[in-house]
Amino acid sequence: MARLRVPESWPRRWVFPVLGALFALGAPLGLLVLRALLAGEPPTPSLLVAETEADPVTLGYLVLTSLLVFVLLGRALGAREDALAATSLTDPLTGLANRRHLDARLAEELTRLARYEGSVAVLLVDVDHLKQINDRGGHEAGDAALHAVAAALRRSCRAIDLPSRYGGDEFVVLLPETTAVQGVELAERIHASLRTMPGAPTVSIGLADLDAAAAPSPSALLEAADAALYAAKEAGRDRTVVASSAMPRTSPFGEGAAG
After folding, report:
1. What is the per-residue pLDDT across 27-49, written as a single tens digit (0 to 9) for each?
2. For the domain 99-242, what is the CATH superfamily, name and number?
């Protein structure tokens, strides 16, 4: 049996009520067909019209109540599905996209670039000295630092960018149709935004595009950005470094310099 497939981008809170309305309209039609069959007559259009005219109040009540019930039920179920979908793609602490969402979008972007010309860059953002912040003020202070970075990313990114929390003290921003050189402007906006927030931490940023990656793959692109991030930390933190193809991969991605 074929399964009804609905595009993932369609909000379920709207799709499910529409489907519910279609099911609801089928209820009175089913009643008319059943009446015809019980009477031993084929359910022809003319017979169905005659049955409708014979008892319009009952059928009208059935239509309205079925519509109300199925539409409200569809709305509730659709809203729940939308909430579950959003939760599966969102970091619960910062509200940014999570690693799963970022990985999927990055793979999609590289697949698109394999067919069409274009560019893509990633920013790898690491909170400076987060361990010390946690040691001094507890995890509440650490969470506040992560919230501040998330706010700076939201404030600085374009609509087409995807800021995400990749894990721990690391954030990644996917920059479609952007080279590393063009991404420097965004990185500077992030630094400047954090400086306007009292008590916000500083961040180190590694920036890379496919020209600096060893291969056109998500892991190679992120490793190039991580090498640039490592260089930013080695140079004193609170700065941005752009990756180059000649830059040594001294720090495996996800295991950069502590803090």
Report:
1. 667 767 777 777 777 777 776 67
2. Reverse transcriptase/Diguanylate cyclase domain (3.30.70.270)
